[in-house]
Amino acid sequence: MDDFASESDSDYTSYWRDWFISSRGNEYFCEIDEEYLTDRFNLTGLNTEVQYYQYALDLVTDVFDFDCDDDMREQIEKSARHLYGLVHARYIVTTRGLAKMLEKFKKSDFGKCPRVMCESHPLLPMGQSDIANSSPVKLYCARCEDLYNPKSSRHAIIDGAYFGTSFHNILFQVYPNMLPPKSQRRYEPRVFGFKVHAAAALARWQADEREKLKDRLRTARVENGFEEEDDEAEEEEEDEEMEGDGFEGAVVQQ
């Protein structure tokens, strides 16, 4: 602690944030400015969402001096991480926050799109809900406009509310030149070099979906018209087999 006391106030107050950002699994987060964290207006309403709110805020801003046992310290530390995440969702839609996240986006810090046709386009973190503990973070590709799960299990457990549902859209509104052209390339199924006819592909997809629906209805024990169709199909198959057997018998008698 003496080493930190010898540093400037600015260096000391950023210690917890530096530790948090540099920790494994927190690579998606950017550092929140001290001025933003100490402005109570930016923290409006968070005191009701975070346990041990004041202690957690003191820890994040490095003014924590409460003497407590290890269990209590662990709870406060957990609350501090949650508080930082909630404030982070607000900060990254500000001018400064967008600029920091843009730099991380340019460096592909959030990963690259796994879709082959997108040619490793950088991804952006986003939440599917603004309410905490609703769903984990997802990765958005602006080229194919689809969502993906993070590759690392450490990132997959991050709360999506720490990034919110609007951040990625606001980023491209503020920096429209970063919005990539939509991908027009699509995989075309082929057989021996020839394209599969669209009608054949559609029929195959419809048949697969029909079978999936049948399985779900059977599992749920819901009465449906598919059972009658299946019985009729079985009867037709039996009739065809009987006719074939009779024809073979006639040939043998001759």
TrEMBL record:
InterPro entries: Casein_kin_II_reg-sub_N, Casein_kinase_II_beta-like, Casein_kinase_II_reg-sub. GO terms for molecular function: kinase activity; protein kinase regulator activity. The keyword Kinase applies. Residues 225-246 have a biased composition (Acidic residues). The keyword Transferase applies. One of its GO terms (biological process) is regulation of transcription by RNA polymerase III. Residues 221-254 are annotated as: Disordered. GO terms for cellular component: cytoplasm; protein kinase CK2 complex; UTP-C complex. Gene3D superfamilies: 2.20.25.20, protein kinase ck2 holoenzyme, chain C, domain 1 (1.10.1820.10). Keywords: Kinase, Transferase. Tetramer of two alpha and two beta subunits. Regulatory subunit of casein kinase II/CK2. As part of the kinase complex regulates the basal catalytic activity of the alpha subunit a constitutively active serine/threonine-protein kinase that phosphorylates a large number of substrates containing acidic residues C-terminal to the phosphorylated serine or threonine. Belongs to the casein kinase 2 subunit beta family. This is Casein kinase II subunit beta.
